[in-house]
UniProtKB/TrEMBL annotation, chains A, B:
List of residues binding ATP: 146-147, 172, 252
Binding site for Mg(2+) 1: 67-68, 147
Gene3D superfamilies xrefs: PurM-like C-terminal domain, PurM-like, N-terminal domain
Protein name, UniProt field: Thiamine-monophosphate kinase
Length: 343, 343
């Protein structure tokens, strides 16, 4: 089922549970018994959840691994995101990191720390979002294990694995002068969505508001989805590797900042073409959380879909340009970017 | 360097930093630049931290994986544990889960979410504890990647990997009637340590107290270390597999509860011998967090060190006995076991 249908489903019929119950009332074992059947271990699981550890296939004798936190407050607001969206986004962001190495995602492990008062339906929704996000973005990949803990702050930690299928990983350091700079995914939509949420889905005191968010979602479904439940181009990672990408990075941070990192690691400059960056160039460069892929390809390579050429690799080590004019990388810091609120 | 020496070092000279500084003051990149040099990627890393994901060797085409949270409040108190101990314990508990499959630990990824006001020295201490815990308990294993996030609650998520070296994983379900029940590790010491901390290292209002904890540590170094920085028998996992263990589980939870799980999964009964359980049988059975290994071995196998025989596998499916008398499994639930305090 596609993301939009599932969100619509989950909003009209929030939970299958008859009795409302919290994780503390139900206890760890009963909560796990409600969550695990909603998750599939996937094609790479040799041994899934249920013992001290899982066992996962690593066909070529290596595995790609990345880990990422989503924390209530700095990373999401419960008044804005549905549990389904939290699970979907946790899967999507980690799958993109695996894809950015040129690997095919194989499996996740998921650790959740939740306040004792958390309704079990919230964890069920997160599990549903994980499952559907995996099915949509990385068919065949599954959840092979996890952990359930108590905390005063809802926190989700996903660790994702991938298979390089015998290829070398695509590093940030391989770009060569003369290569084409290419981008896959949306540009600026996640930032537009977040700006709308802060502008139009907060109450008079600035707190996130659930009803205002629902109304906003109806008006701007694509921009809100880009922020709350992104659908990054996960399969484009393997396609880029097969096409011969020389370097690749994932775009959690701003395009300008990530391009700067690639330029610095590769000892080259990147010159982006403003005509390829859309109507709002500033937002395309400085909007974070799009979770697209930035890659470089040798000249004359036919770019695999959905990559677009957006510039050229030039000879000025570590520097970023737009239409030949130098640009500063703008960055977001997790400690500077959070106002301390939850919501 | 052994655990005791390092704790003593870290208590007399808390940090090499001249200026006190928080993670928010320093910013993510500078914090990572202070932490990463304290960690080694280990022998199994093909590509360590620094790109979108790491690449790890999985020589036999499979890897073992386990993930676990440590959350300020339910899982540790900052007034009791040093940062070094937090890092050591995060490594130790996850390494034991890998060992309990009969695997050799190869690598960890570590995600840390910390309040913006956290001194960088705390994260440096956690990194030092991770490094020394790995060096002491699983030489050759290293930290291949991680994530640093903001949260109002200090939270550490470790995901650990292991190599089965061509062997089948040792499951909880393989015990056979007539097998010997064996145990490796301390029995009840972690619970004794925790009981002492609550009894003698809290102030008049019940809050954890740093100075009382330091005094207690001097009086009962082994029991406090068993709770705050355990040294589980990690290498005994591979030794058990090589000796032909038929089933194995890790002892985060109480011996009685874990024995019950093994009995149920294997469709057998376990009859423990009280004479082998030490002076305080109740505590040996009901004390959690010892992080030892419970295994069963076919009769006539010479038990590998440091396993001790503590009972026999009998014919009463799913039941636990001591000296032939039925015993109830006592358990701890993360949501029931936490009073909501941090400290």
């Amino acid at each position: 089922m596609a993301y939009a249908e599932r969100v619509s489903d989950s909003m009209s019929a929030p939970s299958a549970s008859v009795e409302p119950s919290t994780v503390a009332e139900l206890g760890e074992s009963a909560v796990l018994a409600r969550i695990l059947p909603r998750l599939a271990p996937g094609d790479s699981a040799i041994l899934g959840a249920g013992d001290d550890a899982a066992v996962v296939r690593a066909v070529d004798g290596r595995f790609v691994v990345t880990t990422d936190f989503m924390v209530h407050g700095p990373d999401f607001r419960l008044a804005w995101s549905t549990p389904f969206e939290l699970g979907w986004k946790a899967a999507a962001t980690n799958l993109t990191d695996v894809a950015a190495m040129g690997a095919r995602p194989t499996a996740l492990v998921v650790a959740i720390a939740a306040p004792p008062t958390t309704p079990v339906a919230v964890l069920e929704g997160i599990a549903d979002g994980l499952r559907e996000g995996l099915a949509h973005l990385a068919p065949g990949a599954g959840v092979v294990g996890g952990d359930l803990s108590a905390s005063s702050v809802l926190t989700i930690a996903v660790t994702a694995f991938g298979d390089l299928e015998g290829r070398a990983p695509i590093l940030r350091s391989g770009a060569q002068v003369g290569d084409v700079v290419a981008h896959a995914g949306v540009r600026g939509d996640a930032a537009r969505g977040l700006r709308l949420l802060f502008a139009e889905a907060t109450d008079a005191s600035g707190e996130p508001d659930r009803e205002l968010a629902a109304a906003l979602r109806a008006r701007h479904p694509e921009l809100i989805a880009a922020q709350l439940a992104p659908s990054p181009p996960v399969s484009a990672g393997v396609a880029a590797a097969l096409a011969g990408a020389s370097a690749m990075l994932e775009l959690t941070d701003e395009l300008a900042r990530v391009a700067g990192r690639l330029a610095e690691a590769s000892g080259v400059g990147l010159d982006l073409d403003s005509a390829r960056l859309g109507d709002d160039i500033r937002l395309a460069l400085a909007g974070a959380e799009d979770h697209g892929l930035l890659a470089t390809f040798p000249p004359h390579v036919t770019l695999p879909a959905p990559f677009d050429a957006i510039g050229l690799v030039v000879d000025d080590a570590g520097r970023l340009f737009v239409d030949g004019a130098p640009v500063a990388a703008e960055g977001w810091d997790p400690y500077a970017g959070w106002d301390g609120r939850a919501g």
